[in-house]
Amino acid sequence: MPKNYTDEFKRDVVAVAKQGAATQRQIAKDFGVSKSALSTWMRAAELQERGLVGPSTGAGAAGDVVALREALKRIRLLEQEAEVMRRAVAYLSQAQLPK
What we know:
The chain has 99 residues and is mainly α. Helices cover 74% and strands 0% of the residues. α1 (7-19) packs across α3 (35-50). The longest helix is centred in the C-terminal third of the chain and has 36 residues, at 59-94. The model has no long low-confidence stretch (mean pLDDT 85).
């Protein structure tokens, strides 16, 4: 069963990791957490700094990450569709239309 760490503990560990004095693996070992947990906390902190997600609120944070992932997939799909439409317009504008 995964351990529950306080948000303050997570922020402290991430702050130490961001200083870059040691590798993430060493920092995780020193604080007694897994490397994957530290990586997850680092990604969450990065998203918070960019303003892409709000502060962690427990179970809701996982839902935020899933929603963000789905939104990014949708954005990529819409960008691809827009590119197809741009190319179609460019192709059709070059065609000689009968009068």
